[in-house]
From TrEMBL:
<keyword id="KW-0274">FAD</keyword>
<dbReference type="GO" id="GO:0005758">
    <property type="term" value="C:mitochondrial intermembrane space"/>
</dbReference>
<protein>
    <recommendedName>
        <fullName>Sulfhydryl oxidase</fullName>
        <ecNumber>1.8.3.2</ecNumber>
    </recommendedName>
</protein>
<feature type="compositionally biased region" description="Low complexity">
    <location>
        <begin position="50"/>
        <end position="69"/>
    </location>
</feature>
<feature type="domain" description="ERV/ALR sulfhydryl oxidase">
    <location>
        <begin position="98"/>
        <end position="198"/>
    </location>
</feature>
<keyword id="KW-0496">Mitochondrion</keyword>
<dbReference type="InterPro" id="IPR017905">
    <property type="entry name" value="ERV/ALR_sulphydryl_oxidase"/>
</dbReference>
<keyword id="KW-1015">Disulfide bond</keyword>
<feature type="region of interest" description="Disordered">
    <location>
        <begin position="43"/>
        <end position="69"/>
    </location>
</feature>
<dbReference type="Pfam" id="PF04777">
    <property type="entry name" value="Evr1_Alr"/>
</dbReference>
<dbReference type="InterPro" id="IPR039799">
    <property type="entry name" value="ALR/ERV"/>
</dbReference>
<dbReference type="InterPro" id="IPR036774">
    <property type="entry name" value="ERV/ALR_sulphydryl_oxid_sf"/>
</dbReference>
<keyword id="KW-0285">Flavoprotein</keyword>
<dbReference type="GO" id="GO:0016971">
    <property type="term" value="F:flavin-dependent sulfhydryl oxidase activity"/>
</dbReference>
<keyword id="KW-0560">Oxidoreductase</keyword>
<feature type="region of interest" description="Disordered">
    <location>
        <begin position="1"/>
        <end position="31"/>
    </location>
</feature>
<dbReference type="GO" id="GO:0050660">
    <property type="term" value="F:flavin adenine dinucleotide binding"/>
</dbReference>
Length: 208
């Protein structure tokens, strides 16, 4: 999924860019949990907490920043730079009952999208095809990782969804996912294995 322009991501120079590296801002200019990986998100929250414990004035968590400006969150990150926020202080993954970060949201969403494609009708009628196009178009507007959604819309303009049959949709989805995989430096998935992965399970029966 080639980006026309990347998300607003904090760089590592604390003096010129106040947010921690990896933190992505949403369209509202505030730190965006669903656009950011858990580690970067958690670091910001921990710097804020450390600041509070050291007698600072911060009182919001990063996740509860709905009323804060990007500037105030950013300022917190600057003030607390180096205040006990090394990698070892941050768990690799969030507890299961936390709101999703970019990775958790991505895995859950791909699971839904590929499974939906795997069970799409072999020969959809006109109405079903229109509904699927509409669903994917709406999805690409509202996917809550803003820069991910923007890439998806760009790619959908270049290669509109193929909805004429189950296999067409499943392969189109596989291609979209592989574009993201490539962009993120991951291996491509073998689309010949779509049904095995998302519908039938492997022939050794371990999923039965
Ligand atoms: C629409 C969308 C756009 C995204 N854009 C971005 C982005 O711009 N930047 C970003 O950092 N993250 C993005 N993500 C999240 C990213 O794609 C991953 O979901 C996330 O990094 C977690 O990756 P993962 O390695 O755990 O597995 P995932 O990539 O989430 O894959 C889950 C499982 O799907 C299977 N799979 C993998 N590839 C395919 C394929 N091509 N076809 C079928 N099955 C497959 C594998 O079994 C894999 O374990 C996006 C997610 C979505 C849904």
């Amino acid at each position: 999924m080639a980006a026309t322009e990347g998300p607003t991501v904090a760089q590592s120079s604390p003096s010129s860019t106040p947010l921690p590296p990896g933190m992505v801002l949403g369209p509202d200019g505030k730190p965006c949990r669903t656009c950011t990986d858990w580690k970067s998100w958690s670091k910001l929250a921990k710097t804020k907490k450390a600041q509070t414990q050291q007698g600072g004035s911060g009182s919001e968590s990063a996740g509860a920043s709905s009323s804060s400006s990007a500037g105030s969150a950013a300022a917190a990150a600057v003030v607390t730079a180096g205040a006990g926020t090394d990698d070892t202080a941050v768990n690799a993954t969030a507890p299961d009952d936390c709101p999703p970060d970019r990775e958790v949201l991505g895995r859950a969403t791909w699971t839904f999208l590929h499974t939906m494609a795997a069970y799409y009708p072999e020969k959809p009628n006109e109405r079903e095809q229109t509904m699927m196009k509409s669903l994917l178009s709406s999805f690409s507007q509202f996917y809550p990782c803003g820069h991910c959604a923007e890439h998806l819309r760009d790619e959908m303009k270049k290669e509109p969804p193929k909805v004429a049959s189950r296999m067409e949709l499943a392969w189109w989805m596989c291609g979209m996912h592989n574009k993201v995989n490539t962009m993120l430096g991951k291996d491509e998935f073998d689309c010949n294995k779509l049904d095995e992965r998302w519908r039938d399970g492997p022939s050794d029966g371990r999923c039965d």
